[in-house]
Amino acid sequence: MNERIKELAMNYAHKMGNSVLYNADHLEKFAELIVKECAQLARNTNLEDVEGGDSAVLLAAKHHILDHFGVEE
User: Fold this and answer.
1) What value does the mean pLDDT of the chain take?
2) How many C-beta neighbours within 10 Å does residue 57 have?
């Protein structure tokens, strides 16, 4: 798992010894953090050199988000 995802998850986990517990509220907040971070990444994607219209812009944002979280397609 990507370090940023681990960091976000641990912010909303309840730690008990060597175990980590998540409840529905924690998971909802975790999901919200990921969505907010993706939106921010899409907003901050450098599009100055992107040619090809809307689909190229969306593809650039997609790759920026995947790279940020260390996720492969």
Assistant:
1) 78
2) 15
Beta carbons of 20 and 10 less than 8 angstroms apart? yes
Q: How many Å from the N-terminal Cα to the C-terminal Cα in the chain?
A: 14
**Could you write out the three-class secondary structure of 22-44?**
CCHHHHHHHHHHHHHHHHHHHHH
SS3 call for 62: helix
Paired with 14 in beta bridges are 21
Banded model confidence at residue 15, pLDDT cuts 50, 70, 90: low
Residues 6+ apart with CB under 8 A from 73: 66
Question: Angle at CA 11, nearest 5°, toward 46 and 45?
Answer: 5
Percent of the chain topping pLDDT 90: 0
User: Amino acid identity, residue 14?
Assistant: H
